Amino acid sequence: MVGGGPAGMMLGLLLARAGVHVAVLEKHRDFLRDFRGDTVHASTIRLIDELGLGAGFRELPQSRLNNVAVPVPGAGLVTLAAFDSLKPPYNYVAMMPQWDFLDFIASAAAAEPTFTLLMETEATGLEFDGGRVTGVRYRSTGDGAAGPEKVLHADVVVAADGRHSVLRRAAGMQAMEYPVPFDTWWFKIPRHASDQGEVAGVVPSLGDRDAMIALNRTDYYQMGYLAPKGSDARIREGGVEQFRQRVAALRPDLADRVDSIHSLADLHWLDVRLNRLRRWYVDGFLCIGDAAHAMSPAGGVGINLAIQDAVAAAERLAPDLRQGKVRTRTLAAIQRRRRMPTVVVQAVQRIMHRVVFVPLFAGTLSGHMLAGKAPFSVQRMLFFILRHNPVVKRVLPRVIAIGPRPEHAPGFARPLTVRPPTKLGAMTSPTDTAVDTAAARARLLELIKELAVVRGKVILSSGAEADYYIDLRRITLHHEASKLVGQVMLALADDAGIDFECAGGLTMGADPVGTAVMHAAVDAGRAVDAFVVRKAQKSYGMGRQVEGPSVEGRKVLVLEDTSTTGGSALTAVEGVRKAGGNVVAVAVIVDRDTGAKEKIEAETGVPYLFAFGKDELGLA
């Protein structure tokens, strides 16, 4: 791994826990650099818990960002995304200096005997054998002098060296660039103990063709000044006094301390880029994080996305690395897994650029317009929707704090010494719950691999031929695995924010799954009923298709052990709806990646959740 940022360090830790010999190259002597992103999102905090590191993480100096608000003339601060509306304990974004976070991950990785961190080691290029990358060229930069160039051979080289990636350029890879209307200048201003507003608050200010964002810290504000792209020379020409006046105009309440900007050398200019590689890999080489897709700071999600890349990469690389040969199709699978969330986030950022920043820098958008003191506009309509639409107010915090397609820690990286309890009792804290769930998920994955994956040529229900079969009845009817199924599926729905009162599906594959979820809910002090959906309505007796407690008027989670064509789940959804139930989601233990998700979501209009993908089972 080249690059000791969040993506590179997380990937190094995960692969080391898989028993893989891994080296992370970082060109600086430490992680102590100002104005790196300081956000640790909810899905990353959950990942930390799954790795068994939650207690140590919570001891680090940090503050909680509970909402995102904008100032509106006459209305004060208007909250757009309230993270505390999410389910605890993952209902906030942690704000901490990135060097503390990276030191923490480095310490955890250092406990693994196969992990090596090479500081003051600068990557200079790639080593090739024919068309395959076989290593990285590097040199030591210790003592302020560059040493001789050396070669470190590797089964795979991963570039996590940022938006100006040296290795990406060495591989001859070029990114698609999208227009960005602004750059950012970061700096600090003192924060007094008497200042109002929560520590970790985020306060944007809109001006006349410029803007500023203030991130509240304990004793200072981290300020980001936004101006049209290409303004750096003009800003520096104007001198420090003119820049102080710009800051005071945007934040009059801070005008008494702008003298703390001693010179323009105090400004850290960020050349904002938004781009994406068409192909993230070549044989033996992979790009992740900003090296694969530079993100705009709009939304502040770049770090989270990079860490999720690392998790997906570790899960798929580990089996190949254990065998000493990384296949190109494995690298392609990593890109396929992470392409969708990248495209979605970048699409949202491009819309934000067009709708907010372009008119802002053109002088056609201001806080007064958002307050309704200007003629109707698209921006004013969108702002109204963000403020008042209950669906948006519920979804937006999740999009920011969790993100699209969040990743879970691979089973091999979880603390397997923590065994699932024989009887689930009351948990002492949300963190205990996360650790127990992580252990249960890791053990269930082991059992599925051991008991349920049957190798050999088989004909699937779709009529297609496969070289393996997943027999999950060997899991759902197993004395140990059944309890784990209930705990894992209950946590799966909770993590997705799905509230339900009944759980079940089409007989007979879903029957033991529904029962397991019901018992897990009871153990957790919750009331969830199970039900069974017949394949057809009874022609005798009460003539019911849905058996068990009534689902009429209740929120229903439709379950299945696995799905190939989606047919069983669709039949169950139809039966539940005929019985008056409100289907809120479909959830399966294992997704075979054969199109069931797309079909079910398209035909039912509800989310499709799965606990494990086939890649996690080594079936990519």
**Helix count, DSSP H or I runs of 4 or more residues:** 17
The largest β sheet comes out as: 6 strands, mixed
User: Per DSSP, what share of the residues sits in E-state strands of 2 or more residues?
Assistant: 15-25%
Q: Rg, please?
A: 26 Å
Task: Report the end-to-end length measured between terminal Cα atoms.
Answer: 23 Å
Low-confidence stretches: 417-435
Protein structure class: alpha+beta
Task: Name the average pLDDT.
Answer: 85
Sheet with most strands: strand arrangement: 25-24-23-26-27-28
Shape: globular
- Extended strand count: 28
Into which percent range does the helicity of residues fall?
A: 25-40%
List the helices and strands and how they pair.
Elements: H1 6-17, E1 22-25, E2 39-40, H2 42-50, H3 54-58, E3 63-65, E4 67-72, E5 76-82, E6 93-95, H4 98-110, E7 115-118, E8 121-129, E9 132-140, E10 150-153, E11 157-159, H5 166-170, E12 175-177, E13 182-190, E14 202-206, E15 211-216, E16 220-228, H6 232-250, E17 268-270, E18 275-277, E19 281-282, E20 285-287, H7 302-323, H8 328-362, H9 367-370, H10 378-388, H11 390-401, H12 430-452, E21 453-459, E22 465-470, H13 473-476, H14 481-495, E23 502-506, H15 511-523, E24 529-533, E25 546-547, E26 555-563, H16 567-578, E27 582-591, H17 596-604, E28 608-613
Parallel strand pairs: 1-7, 11-20, 23-24, 23-26, 26-27, 27-28
Antiparallel strand pairs: 2-6, 3-6, 4-5, 8-9, 9-10, 12-18, 13-16, 13-17, 14-15, 15-16, 19-20, 21-22, 24-25
Helix pairs in contact: 1-4, 1-7, 7-8, 10-11, 12-14, 14-15, 16-17
